[in-house]
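Q: How would the structure tokens look for this protein?
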Amino acid sequence: MSQITGGELLLKCLHAEGIRFINAITDGTYMMVIEAIERLGTELDMKLVVPRHEAAAAHACDAYTRITGEPAVVMACAGPGAANLVAGVMCAQAEGSPVIAITTTRRSDISDSYIQQGGMQVSNHLDIFRPAVKWNGKVDHWHRIPDMVRHAFRTATSGRPGPTHLLIPEDIIAQKGDEGSADIWPPEKYRLTQPTPADPVAIRRAAQMIGAADLINIHCGNGAERSGAGREVQQLAEYLGCPVTATIRARGILSDEHPLSFHPTCMSRIAANGQADLVIAVGTRLGELNMWGKPPMFGDPATQRMIQIDTEPTHIGLNRPTDLALIGDARAVLSDLIDAVRGAMAERPHHAKVAEYRAMQDEWQKELDELSADMKRSPMLTGQILKVCNTFFDEDAIFVMDGGNTTLWDIHYHVARKQRSVVYSMNYGHLGTGLPYAIGAKLAKPEKAVYCVTGDSAFGFNMQELETAVRNDLPVIIIVAVDGAYGMEKTAQLRQFGREADWFGHDHAPVRYDHVAIAMGCHGEYVAVATDLQPALARSVDSGKPAVIHAVVDPDANVDPPGNWLWAAARTGKM
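A: Here is the predicted structure in token form.
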């Protein structure tokens, strides 16, 4: 039998799972993994993607899973590499992304079990990662690599997906064993790879509840987006003539331009949530930004009925009581539910309330349009950047949001037209995810345009990854809305103290981000008015390079962006 290293065995296990990219900074503790990729990468169609920071690598994997619906793999070395990785893994956990984090330790005779001896770059990886993942474990023997990899993937993709962590000592990665003695199984042989439907009896009960209801609201969360349930949501909504609402994370599950779709930050959404007789909650825990599913955003549970669809049983009735649970994949459950509804009731016209909500949203949209009408104003509004992007990029483009006040402008002015076309860290609101998310999205769908609108504060966290994009030929477009400060913290200070004040610790020294980009090998543009943005975007695309557009925005307007009141209400629980 041929002898292979633990590194090659690990690579072949990951190949069996359909992994094409391993995101990892090169390191001596897993040199045999790198050697195997160098030797077998072309044959296995696998590539090493080397970032400049481990947290950014985890963010890229997070985005990759959201665009593809499949797991992704990130690796980090003993000690400092693993420490850097934790922040990105925690974000993936919050977003329910099946990221497999593999870290190495030093050799077994000095590693985590003997940390008190003072080995260099030795730490308690299992203890450190355990709160940030669904499961973690350590490989103690060469021949256990396959089954430990399987369990990491099995756990990451089951129920509500999420990250898992595998710890492997460097001596096991370097160790050789008989290839024929290693059992490598394809995913369909050991874990669920097909969407799981709900119980047929529960489906029939749900159809009866729907038939008995007058005003129905379908409210979608990231579970709906993760399963790719957009077509099913649209079919059910059109048959019922009912409004569809979504969390910020699930934007695009039904196009913003669809007549039954209502925007997450408009009062039309709150009216639809609150006035419905029956809410069909699809893949959402009804967390804080949903006001925990309680009044005044939603109706009183005593009078408003709820059907909750989720892959994770522990999410049922988590924040408010539910009347019927449908446990299973959102797309599969909705497909069966549509059939049952069609058999139980006739198709309905749009509910009368839909026109009322549409008028409400049209008025809201008019206010946004009036605010941003002067496209020659200087400095521009961040919302004007989105208006230009809406017309420049087609509906297949992937839009990435970063954290901070720029997000509020993004949410209000970006038009989401397709599912899995918007990437954002809703549950963490991480600053700095924008560029790594864009890289992960471009790896997932290289044929699609990928662009990110971020703020200068957020961009500063991971701008070093521009070099990663250049080196890997990933022509993403990053538009940096520059107000020279931590804008959301100015907002918080104003809200906290109720007065104008000197901004303490919030302002940045001037930086020309287009110049930084050019120095890293990217295309760079500087834009001061919105009318100059479209040609700058065209030049950026034509360059064929990763591009950064430094867009000067109004710092005063950024202190109180659209929807700030709703954000504050959700965060404080006072609406």
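The chain has a mean pLDDT of 92.

The radius of gyration is 25 Å.

Upvote if useful.
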